[in-house]
Each structure stands twice: as C-alpha cells, then as structure tokens.
Amino acid sequence: MNYNRGIALKLKQEFDKRKITYSKMRRYYEGKTDAFEQYPITDRSNRKVKTNHIKMFIDEEVAYLTGNKLTYLCESDANITNVIEYNLNNINSCLDTDLATTLLTYGTAYELYYLYEGEFKAKVINPLQGIAYRNVEGKAELFLYFYTKELEDNKYYIDCFDDNYIYHFDEGFTEISPPTKHYFGICPVGVAELNNGAADTIYNSIKDLQDSYESTLSDWSNEIADTRLAYMLITGMTLDDEVAKTMKSMGIMQCPDPAGKIEWLVKNIPSDFIKTYRETLEDEMYKVTHHLKNQVAVQSNTSGTMLATRLNCLRIKLTTIHQCLNNCIKTRLRCLFKYLNILEGTDYNYKDVSIKFTLNLPNNDLEMAQILSQLTGKLSIRTGLSQLSFVTNAEEEYNKMMEEQEQALGELDLDVIKDETEQISA
Q: How many CB atoms neighbour CB 10 within 10 A?
C-alpha cells in the first residue's frame, strides 16, 4: 500500500482518541492508580499505600515467556538458524522482553524494522508512540510513528511508513523533508495483539480490584494511625484549656462528681474484619489472572508434575500469548530475509522457519526423559530433545551430540590402529 494522506489523517485522529485509554494503562503499570492519586484527604491521618499487582503480574508473565532464549528451526536449511542469530545479535538483547511487556501492558505492540549503518535493526513501539492501518489479515499497511527530538519537548514529529518510503512530517502533517526509500517491499512493521486487544489485558481484568485493594490498605493504615489519636472521655466535670494542660503535665486528674467517669474512648474493630476483605481481594486478583502466590510455601515433597499441574491454567494462557507474539516475529524474519536477499543475493524464505518458544516454567524433566527412553526407535532424537525444558535449540543440541560421537569414534579408531601397529612391531 502506498501513502494515502486521507487515511493517514484518520489514523492520527484515531491515535489521539485512543491516547487517553493507553495513557491510563501506562499509569497503572507505573503504579499511578486512581485509588492512590484520588484518595480522599481528611483532617486526620492521610497515609496512602501503593501496591502494584498489575506490574507484578505483567513482569511475571514476561519472565515466563522470554526467560528462555527464543529459537528458530528450519528443516530445509539448518544454516538459516545461524544466519538469523548472527544478524539479530546486534539488536537489543531485551527486544523480545520489551515486545512482550508492551503487548501485556496495552494489548497491542508494534515492532519497527529499519537499517542503521548498514545493519538490520528492530525497535518496539507502543500504542502511545504509533498506530497502524491494518488489512483483513492484521498486517500493517501504513504506520504512523510519533516522536520528539532532543530538547524539543513541546513539539513532536511524525514518520509515515508505507511499502516503499518513509515520509517525514511535523505535528501539523506538513512535509519537512523528502521521503526516504526503504528496501523491505512491505510496510516494515510487525504487529502483536492479544485476541481481544485491550479487553484481554491484566489492566482491564483487575483494575477495579487493584483500586479496592489499595484503598483498603490505605484505610487500614489510617485506622491504625487514628487509633493513636484516641479521645479521653470524662463525665461529671468540665475542663478549660488551662486546667487540662496542668492536669496533663502533672499526670493527676480529680473528678469532683462521685458518679463521674474517666476513660479512653477507642474504636473496637474485630481484628479479622479488614484482613479478611484484603485477602479476598488479593485472591480474586490471582484467580482472574491465573497466577499463583509464589510466596506461599509448598510441601517439600511436592513433585515437578504437581507443580506443573498447578500452573496449567497459566501455561495455557501463556501459550496463547506466544501465538500473538509469533505473528509479529514472523514479520521480523520476513523483513530480515528481504534485507539479506538484497544484500547477499540469497533466497531465504521466512515461511521455511518455525519459531519455538520455551516457557520458563517448572517441568518434570526426569519423567519426560523416562518417557523418551521408552520411545527409542519410535521418535526422532530432535523431537525428543525439544521436549526437555533445558534444551532451547534441539537442532543445535543434536549437531553437538553428532560431533561428539564422531570425535569419540575417530579417537577410538586411532587407538585401534595404534594397538595393531604395536603388535606388528613386536
């Protein structure tokens, strides 16, 4: 698709409309919740407690998703995996982590591909920085990237990407420099989006629970603080300010009325009242997000199978997120191969490459190894190796094993030849 000014202007309007929602998502990830910022102020204790479950859940899922290295497999040409790793090695090592974090925070993430000093580069763009016009397949056909320049905080610029060029505008969509040609042949932007976009985000699932949880903790903290301001109840006498000060300094109080009473007036709150409510809110947040409390101690004899079973719901959720990331990474490979094919005259095809994610979750590798040993001769070695959690690249591991076996066989042959030579000499 070539640049269309009408579509670009509508994209900018849609970007401005969505900015409010995405800005709030960003604020909640940073811990700037409504409960914290709008907590009612009184003339008594005004403590505010911040506890960021949204960021904790997102960071935990990102660690599970990208804690193990992403691997690429190609049956038609094993060398392609080495080519991919070599050319992506000069990119930010946290690229996949940034992509997953952006996706889980906003429900949508973009990845922009470009050349810098003759090398292929990739950069993650969040919905507060850009917006894409997509076709029925969800592929970006036109992309607007909004950015500011150093020391120009009050002015931003727009780069518009289509299949062939990058157009440069100011914030009023006035062209400020000639278009720059790129060589990818498609709009160089990958799109990752949750199945239902922002509706599937952790923010959308637990925002109200997060607000209630922080409000409860703040109320609880202020209740404790206000208890220190307990009132003294005196009946049967009246005190002016001077007498009260004297009695306080001397520590002596005399009530002239025999029926009078002097006592502290404190609020009697059941100890479990707020605690139970807080735990209910917290349990609900964990239930909605399919997470487990890692701080809760488990039995020492809990097996790996049991741990994996407890994480089964989260595992299914993360597998779905992997598929969303996979769509974007395919575009990354497509643009990389387009660059390599032009630069080196090769004929790489991104469709020949499969992308493998290895979840950074507990697995019972002992049980899996026992299963694989019973399938010897019925299952390929590469497939078997890919089932083990500590093997992130089955192809590479298989090649290493074959090299070691060939080396061991060569050394064995040398020993046999040496023995035969010694026998002949004797």
A: 12
